[in-house]
Amino acid sequence: MATNLRTAGDAGADESRSGSGAFPATHWSLVLAVGGENSGAAGEALEQLCRAYWYPLYAFARRLGHPPADAQDLTQGFFAELIERRLVTRADADRGRFRTFLLGAFKRSMLSERRAAAAQKRGGGKEWLSLDGAEGEARFAREAATHETPEVAFERQWALSILDQALRHLEAEFRRTGREALYTHLHPYLQGDHDSGTYAEAARALGTTEATIKVTAHRMRQRYRELLRFTILQTVESPLLVDEELRHLLAALRR
Fold first, then answer.
1. Are residues 34 and 139 in the same domain?
2. Cα separation of 153 and 237, whole Å?
3. I want to staple 179 with a disulfide (CB 3.0 to 4.6 A). Which of 4, 158, 174, 220 is the partner?
C-alpha cells in the first residue's frame, strides 16, 4: 500500500537531517504562528480544525445540562467568536495542544458576558461554521447514559473524533484508488487480528486468497496508525508532542 503521508516521527527526523532546525508546520502550529494577523492560510487551518472537532464541545455543553438548542447556540457562537475575534492570540499555557486550548476557551466563553451576544450572532445569520445540530444531538442521544463529568466526556469525544478523522483519511485514500470494496470488507480488521474463518470469508467475497487478505489487512492497520499520528499532528504545535498526545487519547478511551 503506498504511503503518501509520513508519520510525525519521520517528518521530524527529515527536518533534523536537513539542518533547518525547524519542524514542518501543522494546522495548529500554523494558526499559532500567525496569531491575530489576517492570514488566509491560518484562517482556513483554524476552520478545518473547528469543523472536525466541534462535537466534543457540543457534548461538553450537553453534559453541563444545557438543552440541545442552547448547546448548539453556545457551540456555534463560540466558534464564530473564536474565528472572527482571533481568540487564539490569547493562547498561553495551552498553546501546544488545540484540544486543551479549545476546551479552556470554551469554558471562558460560557462564563463571559459575551455568551448572550454569541448566541444572537448565530441567530442573526452570521455563521462561520455550519454545524449540524440535529446530527450532533442524535449522536449525543446514542451515547450510553453515564455519570462522567463534562470534562471526561469532552476528552472521550475528542479521542473518538481523532480516530474518526484518521478513518476518514484512510477511506478517502482507498476511494481515490478505486478500492472501495476492499476498504468496505477490510476496515473492520483495523482493531486487531480476526480469526482465519473471517479472513477466508473476505477472501471469497473479494475473489482473492486468504494469505493476500492477511497481508493487506496488516498493511491497512499500519497505514491507519500512520494516519492516526498524522491526524494528531494537526492538533499539536510540534511533532514532539504526538506520542504524549496519543497516550492521553488512549487513556481517555479506557475511562
1. yes
2. 24
3. 174
The tens place of each residue's pLDDT in the chain, 255 residues long, gives 333 333 333 333 333 333 333 334 566 766 665 455 555 676 777 777 788 888 999 999 999 988 988 888 888 888 887 777 666 655 554 556 888 888 988 998 888 745 555 555 554 444 555 666 677 787 787 776 677 899 999 999 999 999 999 999 999 999 999 999 999 989 888 866 555 568 888 899 999 999 999 999 999 999 999 999 999 998 888 888 999 999 999 999 987
Using CA atoms, how far apart are residues 87 and 213, in angstroms rounded to an integer?
A: 48
Give the helix/strand (H/E) hosting 198. helix 196-206
Say yes or no: 192 and 241 in one domain.
yes
Q: What's the number of domains the chain is made of?
A: 2
Does a structural domain hold residue 189?
yes
Tell whether 111 is covered by a domain.
yes
Asked if residue 137 and residue 30 are part of one domain, the reply reads: yes
Examine the domain organization and report whether 136 and 54 are in the same domain: yes
Burial class of residue 247, CB neighbours in 10 A (0-12, 13-18, 19+): exposed
Q: Is residue 96 part of a domain?
A: yes
Residue 159: give the domain boundaries.
Answer: 150-255
Spell out the residues 6+ positions from residue 94 whose beta carbon is closer than 8 angstroms to its own: 100, 101, 104
Phi, psi of 97 (to 5 degrees): -130, 125
- The helix (run of H) or strand (run of E) holding residue 18 is helix 8-18
User: What pTM was estimated for this model as a whole?
Assistant: 0.74
At 236 the three-state DSSP class reads strand
